[in-house]
Amino acid sequence: MIHSRVFGKTAEGKEVLAFTIKDGNNEAVILSLGGIIQSLKIADKSGNPVDVILGYNDVAGYEKNGGYLGALIGRFGNRIEKGHLVIDGESYQLYCNDRGNHLHGGKKGFDKKIWDFVFEGPDGNVLSLSTTSADMEENYPGNLKVQVKYTFVNGELKIDYAAMSDKKTAINMTNHAYFNLDGEGTGNVLDTFLTIDADRVTPTDENLIPHGDFKDVEKTPFDFRKPRRIGERINDTDDPDIRAGGGYDINFVCNKPAGVYGKIAEAESEKSGIVMEVYTDMPAVQLYTGNGLAQNGKSAYYNKNYGFCMETQCIPNCVNCPEYDALGSAFYEKNQIYHSVTAYKFIVK
Predict the structure, then answer these.
(1) Residue 218 annotated among the catalytic residues of the structure
(2) CATH class of the domain comprising 2-348
(3) Active site residue: 81, 138, 266, 311, which one?
(4) Chain Cα centroid distance, residue 183
(5) Model pLDDT for residues 177-215, shown as the tens digit of each residue
(6) Annotated catalytic, 84?
């Protein structure tokens, strides 16, 4: 069973609930605000609970600080150049909130909504969140109905996304969880081992916008095809993409085809013994190493690189780049169902 409690109230006085999902000795806490993963406690190699998710202890923390910590992102995760969206010849100017570009849904994305909820499944152990995005909200066309389901079974936190619009529109949802497998607030993630099954990244300009190009990871700081520590080449500022992002903030093109569900990445902490495997059916994943973190978190002050994100998604700016759209389109016709699944599976060595 899922247990619910009042987490707090927004500045506007709206009640925010916290839902606790138990999985043996593990536990996930999801908020009705933004579908935020507020806590994810995994039993480490000594059997002690380790909270591997960065976040805040109250609603005000999420409202006052940036960074989208743990939140559902939509309608469109990542960046769209200059907020420029064209659908069937009609132009839509999206709100620009990052270096003159549209980022993570705009001024008021899905991360700021209070989601409706029901408990589903035979044991009532599936948290189903739903919301609507009205036609022209953030200037996106179509009334969009959205449902996101969280399950936490056998160490696997699974996120199942679904949506449908009454007009052709663009959809690219993700979750912006920041992970630290040593435990949130314990320090940076530079010693964490990371593997990503990707031969290519999408290089960006100085504003972190990719323009249809691909770059082989061979002999670059982005070659994670074999396990290497995140910090090994994070300061290699000879690379223009490392320099632009102030660390890792780049999209990896998965080697597996779009639409095929499978493992794309793995991270491991020597300290806790916790291993996280990442599964998805999306064509790409953004690695972000918390280069802009600078705020008080749940148990400590979060400095730069105190967490890393693995945001499964369509390729950023794919709505303006046919080369990216061909690898997994974010355009959905009227009444076409958008559906995607991502899972973070935890095991202990």
Answers:
(1) no
(2) mainly beta
(3) 311
(4) 18
(5) 999 999 999 999 999 999 999 999 999 999 999 999 999
(6) no
